[in-house]
Amino acid sequence: MTRHRGMTGQRRIKRATLCRLVLLVGIVGALEILCLDGAIDRLTMPPPHRIVLDMARMLVRGSLDSAIAKTLTNAAIACGLAIVIGIAAAILLHRARPLRRMLDPLFATYYAIPVFAFYPMLIILFGLGDTPQVFIGFMLGVVAVIVNTLNGLDRVPRVLLKTARVNRMDPFETAWRVTLPSAAPYILTGAKLAVAYSLIGIIGAEFILSNGGMGYEISFAYTNFDNATMYPLILLILAVSIAINMALARWEKALMARRGLR
Predict the structure, then answer these.
(1) Cβ distance 58 to 64 under 8 Å?
(2) Who contacts 72 (Cβ-Cβ below 8 Å, separation ≥6)?
(3) Can you tell me the mean pLDDT for 58-68?
(4) Does 9 score more than 80 pLDDT?
């Protein structure tokens, strides 16, 4: 029965992957035709094949390596902090029910807050370096991790918690050996969101006010109608985000398969 359910789940995943590929090929193909046909002016957007060629040329030349390294390093720091602090905060909130009830409305409306509006204040506090940008990326990513980790902790089977009590595990050991492994799929979902939100935060902050990074280069290219730089950088950001999310999704799939849930 479990094996049959697993095979059904695999077929469903393969069908969904195929649908995504068909949709992606359809969108890219439609853009290619519209650009080559002139329906989309080349000053507005070059054909997708030209964007890919420009990105390859940009990476081979290495002309923007320092900007790419700066953005990805800051995004990795922001995302790492969001995941570590988000998981720790969720564990504490899961045990402190009154505090959680007080903060739940904030979590529900958090992403309505224009976080970038705090950027000038962060510059005053931390200076013009990378710290304000990392802080913006962290602020956007951390709540997604907290909310998803709390969802996972809420769904830990009672029998596992009872087993931990019977074995006299302390709170740290219970979290490390029982609740966090059980909530891992939800935590990975939060991590996937944190990757995207951290990249958005870093690039958005660089776009607004910075003297380096991919966001700054996109802003500079946008102002100067330099499509040969702007679109390849956007495509590179998209490729990096998809690659990381696919790796996390594969890890999540392996975890679920180990539990016989897929």
Answers:
(1) yes
(2) 240
(3) 90
(4) no
pLDDT in tens, 178-195: 888 888 889 999 999 999
DSSP 110: G
Q: For residues 161, 162, 166 and 170, what is the CA-based torsion angle, rounded to 10 degrees?
A: 30
152-157: long-range contacts at Cβ-Cβ below 8 A with a sequence spacing of 24 or more?
A: 152/182, 152/183, 152/184, 152/185, 152/186, 152/187, 153/90, 153/91, 153/94, 153/179, 153/183, 153/186, 154/94, 155/182, 155/183, 155/186, 156/182, 156/183, 157/182
Lowest mean pLDDT among 25-34, 48-57, 104-113, 189-198: 104-113
91 closest CA partner among 34, 138, 41, 153: 153
pTM: 0.81
Contact yes or no for 256/187 (Cβ under 8 A):
no
* DSSP 3-state of 211: coil
Nearest Cα to 214, choosing from 64, 42, 98, 13?
Answer: 64
Residue 175 DSSP label: I
214: closest CA among 191, 238, 195, 250? Answer: 238
> Which residue pairs, CB below 8 angstroms and at least 24 apart, start in 222-230?
225/43, 227/42, 227/43, 227/45, 227/46, 228/46, 228/54, 229/54, 229/58, 229/64
Measured between alpha carbons, how far is 258 from 18 in angstroms, rounded to an integer?
A: 24
